[in-house]
Amino acid sequence: MSHAFLSESTHDSSPTVIINTRPLERAAPLSTHLKEAGFRVVDMPMLTLKPRVVSEADIGLMQDWLSGSYDALVIVSPTAAASGLAVWQALKKTTERSTDDLLSESKTLYPSQPPSHLIAVGEATASVLQDTKLPFSYQVLQPMVANNEGMLAMPEIKRLQAGNKLLIWRGLGGRRLLVDTLKARGVHIDSIAWYERIQPIDAQANYQQWAEQFIKQNTSRSPRFVQSQAPKPIVVISSGTAFEHWTDIVEQAQTNSAMASKSIILPTLTDFNYVVLGTRLANIVAEKQLHYWQVEDLSPTTISAAIKQDRLIEIKP
């Protein structure tokens, strides 16, 4: 008899498993909070952040920003903040080779006044900027809600119109609501992609190892049926790219011959519930008829509160 995966259990007292798919660099605060809230947490990153080669065009955009060519700089993540600041520091060191010949350039790289509004998408990103000793003092602005919609509601973004310029520090890919909305107003937007998000090389093996162990630990066998003794695991998905990687891994595991030889049926996408960020990602998950909670930011308290309120959106076939 093959081991079936799991069915929904509403009366089980065992702790719910939450799979945190965020990159390792960003996973710890959420995992720690969820463990303290009584959940069993599995860190299973679906993304790893790979630095990109800094191009001459990137350096040119940095120098343009520092010379005051932009009305605002938006930094979308802690990694983007750290990468941009590191390049800025490297540019400063370059100027130190000849203070006479490069005096003008040095003033550009370390101006005495803020070159533009500085907007951090979220507390973690703001902390990276605030912990850095910048050559001038100014406020790091944040939206009320740490997402694209929250940024669009900020006065500093609302007032941008045709003729204004915005620079974004980001990773390759990602959501485009902010960019598309501002471009429709005629705002000129440039961006520097400091890193790209790729699938970790061990993601498939880690998933299959976890799934096999979970099934063995949470199933009871009888001559007539096999039923899970645990509620559905919950998967935290923070981006479309992470969901694509998760989908690929779960579906590839279905064809694993080693699992088939052990008479173990690995789970499908519908054997999980999901926590997803924003409407766009919720729509993607809903199209696959998956059950989910939608959150508007990725703070640990927001995610745990959504799960505990038990307002799961169930998509009927």
From TrEMBL:
The reaction(s) this protein catalyses: hydroxymethylbilane = uroporphyrinogen III + H2O
Gene3D superfamilies for the chain: 3.40.50.10090
Name the UniProt record assigns to this protein: Uroporphyrinogen-III synthase
Species this protein is from: Psychrobacter saeujeotis
CDD domains named among the record's database cross-references: HemD
Pfam families in UniProt: HEM4
GO MF terms held by the record: uroporphyrinogen-III synthase activity
Residues covered by the Tetrapyrrole biosynthesis uroporphyrinogen III synthase domain: 30-282
